[in-house]
Amino acid sequence: MSIEIKNKKYEIIKILGQGEFRRVFLVKNKSDNKLYAIKEIIIRDDMKDKIKDITKEADILSKFNCKNIIKYYDSYLSKDKFYILMEYCNGGNLRDFINNCIKNGVLIQQSILYQIIKQICIGIKEIHNKIVIHGDIKPENIFINKKMEIKIGNFSKSKQLNPNKVYTQTLNEKGSIEYIAPETLIKGISNEKSDMYSLGCIIYELLNLRKYYNDKTMNEIKKIDTDIYNIKWQEIINSLLEIDNSKRMNINEVLYIIFNELNKNIIIGEIYINKDNINKDIRIINSFENMEKKWSFANKDDYLDYANEKEIKENIEIKINGKIIDFAYYHKFEKEGKYIIEYRFKNNLTKINHMFNGCDSLINLDLSNFNSQNVTNMIGMFSGCKSLAHLNLSNLKTQNITNIDFMFASCDSLKKENIITKDNKILEEFDKKI
User: Fold this and answer.
1) pLDDT tens profile 261-273
2) Looking at residue 183, what is its pLDDT?
């Protein structure tokens, strides 16, 4: 079977979903073999005087130009059917993703959680910027491709708003009850803040792997495990799930927290200070982003003087035992013991060669939340970290990296079994360490 839209034939592969008068097909364009999704809406006799309502989903979808919203390609109105040609996401939807996590008994990794929620919010921002409310934001309507790119879809309950007016929904226009805002459920009214309530339900569900609706009591339980997740997520959830919609954050306020306070582009390090090094200035970071450096010999001891120091200071924040310190390449510790160091990078890095070169008091480094997507050069990154015993590189991938030579040179204490990685290239480089 096939569907023809404006002289282009699309072969039906399978049904992706269906309702009483709607079906969504996975189709293949016979001319270029590309895959698409086609929504078919059956036009009943009693609907033929409401064609504008039937075609509104395509009209709204065509307004968007955002990678986190399902892409609209075309539409076609026949005598008794209306078709919408759209982007196909080959990774299922967010409901499938959540169910898979529940089935396997695993919490969502913080870095993945951050990326999912950030992309949903970017999509909602585009929707609200166009003065549209989605009206049915839920995991089933949030699609995923194999690259873990998030796409908001199914705009069948969406409305183009007249600014400063409140949209009234009838019962059959309301979304899934677990994600409906109280003002919509009780009074039948909606605006952008109603979408924000739905977003709060989704964030809660992603962090707890259970629906917020099922947890509701007279006290409106909204808690997440802040020992696992950043307390800022709790702040967002508390605001978005407010009964009074005037107290909910708008999408710009949520995105501000996400980009400025929840950007988990960090490295966690642990340093051990003993009687032999307590009176020394310990090197805690060397270089990154391929910053130009020059040697100075003003004192009897050589030290690094960075030409681009201002740029480095603006890009990195360092905490020791939770306290922000003034930026330093060397730091003096006054007491023996273990210290936790947090390196928070404010921009994506591309070249991080020799980042921890010679930081010989580091015993543990965790890069599982470090954004290495754009990194191209990691030469000598851990070279000279003589005390390094454990290294977590679980999310670091080297497919875009051109040079990792001497990454582990003189890492005397590090053993292969204490490197957490799925990248064989990293383990092969470890075998070469000198």
Assistant:
1) 776 678 889 999 9
2) 93
In the chain, where the domains are located? 2-86, 94-260, 266-430
Helices (H), 159-230: 182-187, 192-208
- Helical spans, DSSP H, in 293-337: 309-315
The superfamily (CATH) of domain 94-260 is: Transferase(Phosphotransferase) domain 1 (1.10.510.10)
**CA distance linking residue 113 with residue 98, whole number of Å:** 11
Outline where 26-82 has alpha helix (H). 51-61
Beta strands in 274-329 (DSSP E): 281-283, 293-296, 303-306, 316-320, 323-324
With a cut of 50, list the residues of the chain below it in pLDDT: 171, 218-219, 289-303
With contact defined as beta carbons under 8 Å apart, do 196 and 250 qualify?
Answer: yes
Q: Which of 414, 372, 415 is nearest to 393 (CA)?
A: 372
What's residue 291's pLDDT?
45
Q: Could you tell me which CATH class the domain 2-86 is placed in?
A: alpha beta
Instruction: Please tell me whether residue 269 adopts helix, strand or coil conformation.
Output: strand
Assigned token pair, 415:
């053993």
> Contact 308/329 with Cβ under 8 angstroms?
no
